[in-house]
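pinned: reference chain
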Amino acid sequence: MSTFYLKTKIYSGENALSHLKEFPIEKALLITDRYFTTSGAVNRILELLPNAQITIFDDVKPDPTLEMGVAGERIRRSLGANILIALGGGSPMDCAKAIKALSDVPVKLICIPTTSGSGSEVTSFSILTRGETKFPLIDETLLPDAAILDPSFQQNMPQGLIAETGFDLISHCVEALAAKGRNPFSDAMALRALSVAVSLLPRSWRGENQVRGEIQCAACMAGIAFQTAGLGISHALAHALGARLHVSHGRLNAILLPAVVRFNATVCMDAYRSASILLGAQSTSDTLLLRHLIRELEQLRRKLQLPEHLRDLGVTLPNDLSGIIDDALHDMCLAGNPRPVSAEDLQQLLQEVL
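pinned: its structure tokens
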């Protein structure tokens, strides 16, 4: 038996932000980072809600910590706000979910993603960092009430951010297609998102703004897919590596994903077969289908000028990888991987991508 559930109401397309006026907002905490405060993006929200009391919490930084959530909750409580508005990429949305988890009263969460990657606007995942460890917090109470996908927020994304968040999107699709919790509904979302992303990401990266709304919807679909199906090794290792190396999540997934696909293929070739055929493979041989899928991922990585190896990141890896491996083994995303994983398996995968 399988279950598919979507709580979040999604508004998408041109002028989607205008739907914010439909919510009965009297007091709200707006969670974002300094870039959106200084760039004027926050003002677009304030202008839509002239009669509401909006307080801005813009202390969010990459790899948000539990302490950021605690600080935000203190402010929310002092205001008596019962609505949280998250504006930004995965970090502000993760922080907003931490605030929601810490709140002593029910609060509604509206997410306005400004990148196309995390899918956090429709998931119950919040990735928080403590020291050198990332902790995925997963609970259905963290599911946002609404997601506003307005492509106008995507128009000024730099190439590097398009590439990094885009490959995070790709990794969500590929891991969800193979994960233990997959079902026909999650597969449909993941396959559609994968098709759109592989086709349009290079065009977005080259500066074609008009395709970014479609990619934004694809990222949301990929989030819906992995919310149901789960994820796997690529995300578990990316969390463990990211917390120590302070490298973007998407860059790490770009390095890891082809090797993870190769590792998992012995138990989930049916999923990879569908993905490979979707991406244009003509063969009926599983060996050739797998080779085609991995080649497509590697070619996309090159088109987006993302690194192929950990050594290309310009950071120093510890000689002893046992701490990274231990964190990955205890990462909640690993539970969704279709193939059982040992410390030795993770060691071998890391050696493969060094």
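why pinned: Residues 204 and 210 are 8 Å apart (CA to CA). The longest strand covers residues 83-88.
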